């Protein structure tokens, strides 16, 4: 695997073995050897083209907010990464596949993984919301209720990625006869063709009397869901 855990909060990567690595700006702790750092490209916006206003312009602005500034590290040295004392979790994607997570949840990844930004509605695979602006509105509603964004970052290809979380990460297998249901605030990422759908356990009869579990995220399909041991946002 490209990344190695030093402890729960720090990972290291040997660029001679992994090749170039992309990491969020400010995450590099120290390095040894000959390493060069340069700003990494910013993904293009959706609905951010000149002249687009209203909902399309809003979608573009929210998509740009999903992106975290990143740096490319390359050379023949060893780099150590960590960020704000948060727990790290390495996802091995050497077999290929796709990983979906908010940009704020990503510490670093190898350049063999292609990064794109997609709408929450498209990433969830949920029907009924439609694509385009209808899908964006559905994603916005989901984001408003769960505290997540309207867009999510998708990594596709072969390589490795490192997630950030509060209190450590649990890996939950998805694919049994019943879906896995998690607290939306504790949801970190999903790997593989996992479908997510926001569910409400609240009815008109118990409005104002429910606890903090009124909204739940139902995960189905095949893959892995990563859940942090906290409801705290990054």
User: What general form does the structure show?
Assistant: elongated
Count of extended strands: 19
The percentage of residues in β strands lies in 35-45%
Poorly predicted runs are 43-52, 55-65, 126-137
Q: What is the distance, rounded to the nearest whole angstrom, between the alpha carbons of the first and last residues?
A: 26 Å
**Major sheet size, sense and barrel closure:** 6 strands, antiparallel
Oligomeric description of these chains? single chain
Q: Return the string of H and E elements.
A: EEHEEEHEEEEEEHHEEEEEEEE
Computed CA radius of gyration, to the nearest angstrom: 18 Å
Count of helical stretches: 4
Strand arrangement in the largest pleated sheet: 5-6-3-10-13-8
- State the secondary-structure class: alpha+beta
Q: What's the rounded overall pLDDT mean?
A: 80
- The proportion of residues forming helix, as a percent range, comes to 10-25%
